[in-house]
Design a protein that fits this description.
This protein is of the alpha/beta class and 385 residues long. The chain is 47% helix and 15% strand. It has a 7-stranded parallel β-sheet with strand order 4-3-2-1-5-6-7, sandwiched between helices. The protein has a 5-stranded mixed β-sheet with strand order 11-10-8-9-12, with helices on one face. The structure holds NADPH dihydro-nicotinamide-adenine-dinucleotide phosphate, 1-deoxy-D-xylulose-5-phosphate and manganese (II) ion (MN). Keywords: Isomerase, Isoprene biosynthesis, Magnesium, Manganese, Metal-binding, NADP, Oxidoreductase.
Length: 385
Amino acid sequence: MKKISLLGATGSIGTQTVDVIASNPESFSLEALSMGRNLEKGLEIINKLSPKLVCVQKKEDAEKLQHDIPAQTKVVYGDTGLIEVATFPDAEVLVNAVIGSVGLAPTLAAIETGKTIALANKETLVTAGHIVMEAASKHNVRILPVDSEHSAIFQCLNGENEKEISRLILTGSGGSFRDRKRSELKNVTIEDALNHPNWSMGAKITIDSATMMNKGLEVIEAHWFFDMPYEKIDVVLHKESIIHSMVEFIDGSVMAHLGNPDMRIPIQYALSFPERLEIKGSKPLNLWEVGKLHFSQVDYERYRCLALAFQAGKEGGTMPTVLNAANEVAVNHFLKGNIEFLAIEELVERSLDEHEAVQNASLEQIVEVDAQTREFVQSLITQRW
Ligand SMILES: NC(=O)C1=CN([C@@H]2O[C@H](COP(=O)(O)OP(=O)(O)OC[C@H]3O[C@@H](n4cnc5c(N)ncnc54)[C@H](OP(=O)(O)O)[C@@H]3O)[C@@H](O)[C@H]2O)C=CC1
Ligand SMILES: CC(=O)[C@@H](O)[C@H](O)COP(=O)(O)O
Ligand SMILES: [Mn+2]
C-alpha cells in the first residue's frame, strides 16, 4: 500500500490522481491533500477518500470547511499548510499537482523528509531545477515524472546508459491555434485559446500549450530530469498527441512511447513504479482508428515562446526563473481579459531582456528574482493596458 499526499487535488491532474487512487484502493491511499478555493470539489474528494490532513488557500475557507467534515480530519491553510501536507509523516509519496512556482517550496520540504516525488508541477523544475535536483540527490530521493512527455522519455530510457543517448525528442501538439498563421493570432479570444485539440487540462497549461511555452517549459524540465544538454533536446510537432515523446540513441535506434491522450496513464505509472497496474476505464489505443500520425518541424518565429525558453535554458542561471514568472503573470492577465494573446510572448521577452542572469543562484536569490519579475511584468501591464 503506497500512502500518498496530493497537492492541487481539485485541479485537472489532482482529480485524475484521485481517480487513480480511488480505482486502486488495494494499492494506494490518500493521506493528505491540498486544494485552492474549490471547496465543493474538495469536499467531494474528502468524503470519498477520507484524508487525515487537508490544506486550503485561505483562512476563512479553512474555518468553513472544518464545519463540514469529520473533526479527525485536520484543516490547515496557506503556504505553511501546503508544507504540512507535503511533509505529512504518514505519506511516502508526494504528488505535486499545484500550478505555478508556488509548488517549489513544498517540493523542497518533501524532499528533505525523504518522500518520493511524483512531479506534475513543471514550474518547480523550471524555476529552480539546480536546487531541486541537488536536494533530491543529497537526500537520495527519487523524482518521478508525471508530465506525459517526461513519463514517455523515462519509459523509453528504461535505465539505458546516458552516454548512448543522442537526442531527446519531445512531441508537441501545437496547441489551440496550430492551424492559424501568426498574423491570425492578433485578436484571438480566451475561449478559443482554451480549446485544446487533444487534452482537457487546467486553464494555465492550456494557454501555455497555445503559445507553446508549455513545450518550452518541458524542454527545461527535460534538461533537469534527464541531465541532458539543450543541444540534445529537440521538439517535433505531432498533432495527434499519440506519440508522447521519443529517445534517439547513438546507434540510430529511436524509442517512442505511444498511448491515447489520457493523463491517468502517466499519473498511475508514477504511483505504481517500478510496477505497472492495469488501468481501469481507459480506452485501448487502436492505431487503425487513429489512421495517420503527422509530424512537422517547429517554426520558431511562429512559436516565439518556445524559442525564448530554449534561449533562457541555454543561458541558464536565473533566466528560466524569469521566463517562468513573467509567463505566469502574463497568462493570468490574458485569462482575465486584461491583455491580448500576443502580449504574453512580448512580456516574457521584455523580462528576459531586462534581466542579468545570476548563475548558481541560492533559493533566496531565486525567490527574489521570481518576485521582482512579477512586479516588473505587472508594472508593464499597468502602464500599457
Ligand atoms: N492538466 C494536465 O493534463 C497537465 C498538467 N501538468 C502540470 O500539472 C500542474 C497542474 O496543472 P493542472 O492540473 O492543469 O492545473 P489546475 O489549474 O487544473 O489545478 C491547479 C490546482 O492547484 C490549486 N491551486 C491553484 N493556485 C494555488 C495556490 N496559489 N496555492 C495553492 N493551491 C493552488 C488549485 O486549487 P483550486 O482549483 O481549488 O482553486 C488546483 O487544485 C501544472 O504545473 C501543469 O503544468 C502537466 C502535464 C499535464
Ligand atoms: C498532457 C501533457 O503532458 C501536456 O503538457 C500536453 O503535452 C500539452 O499538450 P501540448 O503538446 O499541446 O503542449
Ligand atoms: Mn506535457
